Amino acid sequence: MLHITKLNDGIDLFKALGSEVRIKILDILLNDSSMSMNELASRLNITNGALTSHIKKLEDCGLITTSNESTGHGNQKNCAIRQDRILVELEKEENMKNVYSTELCIGHYSKAEVCPTCGLASSTAMIGEVDDARYFDHPNRYNAEILWFTKGYVEYVIPNFVPTSQRITQISISAELSSEAPGVNSDWPSDISFYLNDVPVGIWTSPGDFGDMKGLFTPDWWFPNWNQYGLLKMITVNRKGTFIDGLQISDVAIDQVIQGPHSGIRFRMSVEETAKHVGGLTLFGKSFGNYGQDIRVNITYAPNM
């Protein structure tokens, strides 16, 4: 997801979308997953030189990715969609200064109960043995920058340093997620449930487990037929309800999960055994996937009324 919170930050994006040719490029890539520059130029009936400038504009604003692939006739550049959603927020925040921000490392969960297939890895090596859930309790799990499991959950404690005279009005959490299939499978739905302080706030269905191309930040030692990247999702809970990428998924509001400014905040991601799609969960940290981040949290607060 590409998240624009200030219009000035989206100028390059808006310019990139202001071209009929570039819109056609995105439409083609949405339907065909990935395509070489030669194939795109032929489909659009333009020269490779003309196509290059359009591709650069789309790549510079983060809408697509390009990668070089060796063929029998030399190297060939392939293009693919990078974003699954664009969110442009026009609603003014209550007070942009009153935000406490933090980032949770992937391995710093407080509780976990998982079932194979499962595993963890740091930026440089696997942590323990694959499909042995005992390693989710290993001391080295604090170094994990990717984890995955078929069903179960991981739970994180979110630090709360909101001033005592304030009340929490919104919590936003962003993370890069995908399903967990044996190997990889882009058509492998999984119902991922989100909880705050044991209250179920909503469910998002991940469409698949992606490995069609290398993740932008995924290290070179990582196995090519394993999870490469996920989708960046933003879960927001405020006074109006719970939203994912700006779309409301439940009526659970902030006052139902936060009891006061000193309230503890526990965030859980789970794949329930009773879910319609038990397709697992992969959680990507800053050294894996396409977004170079861990779990980012913004807590908005305002004076007590």
- The N- and C-terminal alpha carbons lie at a distance of 35 Å
Low-confidence stretches: none
Number of helices: 4
Q: What is the typical, i.e. mean, pLDDT?
A: 91
**Taking Cα atoms only, what radius of gyration do you get, to the nearest Å?**
21 Å
Oligomer status? single chain
Could you give the count of β-strands?
A: 17
Task: Determine the strand fraction and express it as a percent band.
Answer: 35-45%
Shape: globular
The major sheet is characterized as: 12 strands, antiparallel
Q: What is the H/E string?
A: EHHEHHEEEEEEEEEEEEEEE
What class would the helix/strand composition place it in?
A: mainly beta
Percent of residues in helices comes to 10-25%
Write a structural description.
The chain is mainly beta and 305 residues long. It is 13% helix and 39% strand. The protein contains 4 helices and 17 strands. Strands 6, 7, 8, 9, 10, 11, 12, 13, 14, 15, 16 and 17 form a 12-stranded antiparallel beta sheet that branches. Strands 2-4-3 form a 3-stranded antiparallel beta sheet. The protein has a two-stranded parallel ribbon with strand order 1-5. The longest helix is centred in the first third of the chain and has 13 residues, at 20-32. The radius of gyration is 21 Å and the shape is globular.
